Queue: 2 jobs
Job 1
Amino acid sequence: MESKQETCLHCGGSGQIPSWRLGTLFGIPQTTQTCPRCHGTGKK
Ligand SMILES: [Zn+2]
């Protein structure tokens, strides 16, 4: 039984991925960029 999800695995379905900037000591994502795979749709 396979659960076929259309959720983009690259961004987890959010459509955006956190972009860590160099120099951020706390590792907090300062910005987000549109997922290059799903182009922000969050789906495959
Ligand atoms: Zn994606």
Job 2
Amino acid sequence: MANKPSSSSLPSINEDIAAVEEVPLYGSESGWVEARTHCDHLASLSQDLTHIPTPDTQCNRCQHPNENWLCLCCKDVLCSRFVNKHMLEHYHQSNHCLALSYSDLSVWCFSCDAYLDAQVILSLHPAYETAYLLKFGEAPPLRS
Ligand SMILES: [Zn+2]
Ligand SMILES: [Zn+2]
Ligand SMILES: [Zn+2]
């Protein structure tokens, strides 16, 4: 008999406390790094993301050979902030803020300063699917 209805002894005070504590906790988990499911900058995406450079493309500036980023606005391939920061530099110069990582296929928005969920955001599907296909030789297992 563990789950008695709340009409037994001393119920209402405990329930009120629980309800009050749950509400502020629910909305206060900011700061946690989680992929966003929307972004205000998707209008700047390239119109054709089904034709993109292969994942082993070198950085266009320093020829770094792998794990580069693809600019999803102009399809330039540039190295990461852990190499020579050419993708970051490109963002500062051109304001192209959306980039796909060829190392793990994550999508980053420099303006939002956040990862974007490429499997949820419809306009990112072509880039994600094409990159996945190029990298692994098969279509991605899309969640639905
Ligand atoms: Zn570079
Ligand atoms: Zn660009
Ligand atoms: Zn954004």
